[in-house]
Amino acid sequence: LHMGKTMKEDLTVVAKYINKLYPPEFNVFSIYAELYHNYFASQAKKNAESHLEDKDIYLLLSWVHNFYPKDMRKDHALAMELDKVKLGSLLPSSLSKELENKYLDSEEVTVKNALSRCLDKEIQRWKEDKEPEKLNGHFQSELLGIFVIQSIYSSQKRAEDISKAVGEELSHRLLKELPAFLRSYRDAFEDFREKSKKHRYYKPILIANINNCWNFR
Questions:
Q1: Domain residue ranges of the chain, discontinuous segments joined by +
Q2: CA diameter of the chain
Q3: Which residue of 13, 46, 168, 196 has the fewest CB atoms within a 10 Å radius of its CB?
Q4: What is the C-alpha to C-alpha distance for residues 75 and 19, in angstroms, rounded to an integer?
Q5: Which residues contact 131 (CB under 8 A, 6 or more apart)?
Q6: What interhelical angle do 93-127 and 54-62 show, nearest 10?
Q7: CB under 8 Å to 177, separation ≥6 — which residues?
Q8: What is the pLDDT of residues 25-71, one digit of tens each?
Q9: pLDDT of residue 157
Q10: Cα angle: 96, vertex 101, 104; to 5 degrees
């Protein structure tokens, strides 16, 4: 953040004031921009090659795909001059792709584990002597229906905020995880339906789960 802010502010000064003090053939703005970019890129590469936590990978990818090319280089005071320089990306494409794969693998596992924990909690609730919650006057599992859908949606949204391509790849992966989760849910529900007919709230639990189907569709 400090490097980005410094680069943006300094290049704005160069564009507005320093550039016009030199003949055009000196390419003063280009020299400044390239030097700043090369240093910024070297630091990004150094970070990318070190051990990064998941949140750091996400932040670095956000800089590579969003903050740097869009928020900084498309700034109204700099865009025209920077378009002439052709600075390239903060990271080599191979390294950027490696980070993207790490992020996608991690996010896929995170969502998969979250769905599994959610189903375990739901199964545990079926075993309790407790009536299901009502949503808009109807029995429904807010935990299962809403949590699962929000988990997948928010994960997709975060990925799309990095780039459209990363978002599409994660969506493709999660579209494989959702049917697997739904099969586990169906199997668990069928098991409850067959073995728990004497449960005090057997019928409301059945209704709540049937009502979940529309949300999942």
A1: 1-91, 96-215
A2: 90
A3: 46
A4: 17
A5: 139, 201, 204
A6: 130
A7: 108, 111, 112, 115
A8: 999 999 999 999 999 999 999 999 999 999 999 999 999 999 999 88
A9: 95
A10: 125
